[in-house]
Amino acid sequence: MTESVTPEASPLRLSTALSHYAVKSAQDAVAAQAIEQFHRTTLGILTVGSPISPAQRTGDGGYEQRYSFGSILKPANTFPDVGDRYHVTVTLAGVRCFGTDDPSGTDEPFLITSVFAIDPREQEKSSETRRIGPDGIGDVEVGRIFGQNSDLAVDIAVPGDSDIAVNVQLFDQELVTNPDKVRRSRRRLASRRIFGWPWAIGR
Length: 203
Known about the structure:
Elements: H1 11-21, H2 26-41, H3 44-47, E1 56-57, E2 63-67, E3 70-74, E4 81-82, E5 85-92, E6 95-96, E7 106-107, E8 109-116, E9 127-132, E10 140-141, E11 145-146, E12 150-159, E13 165-172, H4 179-195
Antiparallel strand pairs: 1-2, 2-3, 3-4, 5-12, 6-11, 7-10, 8-9, 8-13
C-alpha cells in the first residue's frame, strides 16, 4: 500500500487499509503503515525477516509487530525502530603461518580486517575496519601464531537477527609500502557493500 493512511481518510480507503493491515482502527492502521515503511526502507527483510503477525498495541501506548527473526516497535508519538539491537565485540583468536617463499625464511605480515552488519539507524557503529601489524608482530617464521586476541570490532551494532560479515586479508609488508592506504581502501569498500550494495553481503 503506497497511499498514506490518516484517521480522516475516506471510508473506502480506510476500509481497505484496515483489511490490508488486519487491524481494527484508523490509528492502528497509521501505526502499521509506519512500521511497514520502516521495514521496507531499512532493509528489514535482512534484519528481522518477514512479518508473522499484525501490528499490536503495547501497554505503553505504542505498537509492536512481530517478524520471523525479531520485532519492530513504534513507541507513541515517535518513529519505529528495531525491537532488539545487540552490540557485539569480535576478537581474532590468531593466525598461523603455514609457509613462506621469502629466502630469509620469515615474513613481515599484517592484517586488514573488516567487520560489518546492516543497521541504517547506527551507520557509524555498524562497520569497523582495522589494521593489525606489522608493528608489534615483526618477523614471522613458519609455524608461529600471531595476532592473538586482537579485537576486530568493538561495540558494533547488530539489529534483530542480522548477520555479521567478517573479512580478513593477509599482506606482506615487503609487497605493500603503505598499510594504512590499504586499510582506508578496505573501509570504503565495506561502506559501499553495506549502504550501496546490500545484496553483496557475504560474498
